[in-house]
Amino acid sequence: MTDLLAVRDLTVTFRTRHGAVHAVDGVSFSVRRGEVLGLVGESGSGKSVSLRAVTRLLPAFASVSGRVAWQGEDVLTMPPERLRRLRGGQIGMVFQEPMSALNPVLPIGLQITESLVAHTDLDARARRARALDLLDLVGIAAGPTRLAQFPHEFSGGMRQRAMIAIALAANPALLLADEPTTALDVTIQDQILRLLRGLVDELGMALVLVTHDLGVIAETCDRVAVMYAGRLCESGEVGALFARPRHAYTAALLQAMPGEGTRDRKLLTIPGQAPRLDAPAAGCAFAPRCTLARPICASGRPALLQVAPEQFSACHAAAELAA
Amino acid sequence: MTALLTTTDLAMRFPGRRGFVDVVRGIPRPVVRALDGVSLDVRPGETLGIVGESGCGKSTLARCLVGLHRPNAGAVRYQGTDIATLRGGARQAFHRQVQMVFQDPYGSLNPLMSVGAILAEALAVHRVVPPADIPRRVQDLLDRVHLPAAAATRYPHEFSGGQRQRIGIARALAVEPKIIVADEPVSALDVSVQAQIINLLQELQASLGLTLVFITHDLRLVRHLTHRVAVMYLGRIVELGPTEEVFATARHPYTQALLRAVPHLIPGQRRRDVAVRGELPSPLAPPPGCAFHPRCHLAQPACSAAVPALGLREGSWPVACLQADRAIIHSSAVAANTPSV
Q: 3-class SS at B209?
């Protein structure tokens, strides 16, 4: 099966007054048609920057290298006109803060049809009909009234639904969602995640979901890529990876989560804190906090190796974790 | 067991905002009922969780408990005394016994004071130890929250989020309180750091015999940490019971919905249907009767007629639902295909 999106050795460096910040450091992953890939990591792990680099949405002071292939076509060297048709056309985007991603002075209807004007040949009447269909698709009732309303008249959950409607306007083959439910309450998060999963199954599109919540990954994704300090630790099928993590960071993270059955024990803690990104570690970025670290972890950067049929890990202790 | 801290029929209203046109038209200022008839007790040595979604009043309740808000009606009693009647030394003594830890440790630490000065100030104001002993006590406190001794001479901005929260906890501990009210203390922290703070709170509770009131929106943390849990919805407590039992057999349809909505950590157990339909109503215009009835699948006409009181309703812990008996039956019917948190 060919990959819809293939990211190879993606590296993003921000040049700042205080020196270079290595936000993404040699990350590779791919997205297949119709699947949900989760990109999970803590703050500063580079998950959102990776997502933005895919559609070249980073500011000018970011230097991006590596290869991003959209159905075989190189996105990083794509001419601007072609890139414009790709963004919002074949690749839709949903952001964490719908209030800042939506235009506050334009009615929702106009913001949906704007995307239809840019990416389809529909006439005005057909655009309105499509906009109503889209609202219905994302579960916004009273479509005709809602089209005329402004973002501030929508609740947080409804705004996120409107954002999704805009992203879906041009029938994308891939939806990129950057922490779409982080700002929402748990019952609303549940509604939005189920909506996204339902849309993937119904429309056959693929979804990349960026989140910091392993629960969201377990509930929503088919495959997952775990990031730490700008690097990819581990990727694989969700069931296998949660059952048997093969990177020391993933294993520790899963044990640090409170929940059922943790009541009578202490949570596993990961000592210390995430490293600074201005001086990348020579070895594994997680080594200073890792309980399984050995001498090689400090000096040699582990390569991402296949450890199981559907699982890749960049950890010198991968074999030990399998036992 | 006598309660350490109790609230009875606590009500807290905040004036809402109105636009210029409404002012000219003489439309009265809207009122947000942040708390509406909240009664609970905090027992010595326990960890009480207060959980709910945004706007449910949990943070307002926390602030009332420590005396930062003066409620519009009802009372907060500490060891039997209404804290609104406390003056002077008695009020200071109350503040010393009931301390708060805030969500944003950066916003609640003075950026111009070194960590040592922040801790020393608390020790001096409350005259916890003689002035000569303050430096030694500061070191003890830093040690208690696992910060290096050198932290005393540094400033809040030099620390990470997790370390700042340790400083916030050390400051609360400085005055040797009986109760710590922690308002979302780990919500701003990453999972790996969150676990350190949670373990620290548990460790301190065991070694110092602290009573903890833990405000959070995170049900996984509630389950891990608390002995009892109060579930709030739109300014009211809808269910209040022993944590393990509430998680096993929640009696209020809202509690059940909340528990279903938490993403589970075990892949392959997905539901297709949503945990609960609809959105949180506006606290400016709460629905009549039970505030949850517009979203509730068990709602009957009676549910919109009057606000159901928090009562035992033939169970062993209080719940504010007219349909509580039906809710349990319904919940056990769906439990077959729903994993727990």
A: coil
Do B193 and A273 lie within an 8 Å CB cutoff? yes
Q: Is residue A151 part of a domain?
A: no
Binary contact (A254, B264; C-beta < 8 A): no
Q: What pTM was computed for the model?
A: 0.91
Q: Provide the shortest C-alpha distance from residue B199 to chain A (in Å).
A: 6
Per-residue pLDDT reduced to its tens digit, B291-302: 999 999 999 999
Task: Evaluate whether residue A117 is within a structural domain.
Answer: no
Range list of H helices, A73-185 = 80-86, 98-101, 108-119, 124-137, 143-147, 156-168
Contacts of A152 in chain B (CB under 8 A): none
Interface contact flag, B267 A42, Cβ < 8 Å: no
Is residue A51 domain-resident? yes
Chain A residues within 8 A of B220 when measuring between CB atoms: 215, 257-259
The whole-number mean pLDDT for each consecutive block of 10 residues of chain A, a chain of 323 residues, reads 89 92 95 96 93 94 95 94 93 87 93 92 94 94 92 91 94 95 91 94 95 94 96 96 96 89 84 86 94 94 94 95 85
Chain A residues with beta carbon closer than 8 angstroms to that of B199: 266-267, 269
Backbone angles phi, psi at A52, to 5 degrees: -70, -35
Q: Is B53 near chain A, with CB under 8 Å? A: yes
CB A257 within 8 A of CB B191: yes
Contacts of A268 in chain B (CB under 8 A): 195
Q: ipTM value of the model?
A: 0.88
Architecture of domain B5-248: 3-Layer(aba) Sandwich (3.40)
Q: Which domain holds residue A66?
A: 3-32+41-80+181-188+206-258+266-322
**How many interchain CB pairs under 8 A, A with B?**
132
- pLDDT tens profile B202-246: 999 999 999 999 999 999 999 999 999 999 999 999 999 999 999
Structure tokens at A179: 């922490």
